[in-house]
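Subject: Protein entry, chain in single-letter code together with its fold tokens

Category: Structural biology, sequence-to-fold work with a learned token vocabulary.

Notation: Tokens come from a learned vocabulary of local backbone shapes, not from coordinates.

Start of record: The labelled sequence and token lines come straight after this line.
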Amino acid sequence: MLPRQAAVTIANMIAIAVALAMDAFAVAIATGVRLKQVSLRQFFRLAWHFGLFQALLPIIGWSAGLNVRAAIERFGHWVAFGLLAYVGLHMIREAFKLEKDARRHKDPTRGLTLVMLSLSTSIDALAVGLTLSMLQVSIWIPALVIGLVAGLFTVLGLYLGKSVGSAERLSPIAEVLGGVVLLVIAAKILIEHRALDVFFS
């Protein structure tokens, strides 16, 4: 059972996973639009790599957080708020860039391009892993959920992109929504920890 000060509901976990998957979803839509025809091998390569990186990066961030958690435990909820707020704002700001990056490559599901896209769409998950460490939340189930959701959204994005060329317009909207979800969760952390009481007492 999670510590009381770090209780994260399944709903929150899924919401975080969905929000993080918006980067992969955006790139997958643009990739599908770019390729038009997507083979099963391309589906598997993109979904596997995006899901794998989305699962690994939180673990790396969480492991790094263990080394500094004791020093900032008193301010952990503020650190969590700051990281999630930063990720959310960053996702909103970058909403119109990822799909353009994906279109520059002839086949983003191969070689170094695939690795670079997998990393770039997963880097936000690193901060989330660090956040979960600050909140004293075990990383293994969240990492699994984040990876599976990212893989699923990648498949959905590729399918939408290849099926409807105009679906490319959905990618920035999806990423903005993901950013908003993270901002809402960040605010909820402060409310649950009564961190704002000092301003209203």
About this structure: The CA atoms of residues 43 and 157 lie 10 Å apart. Residues 8-200 form one domain.
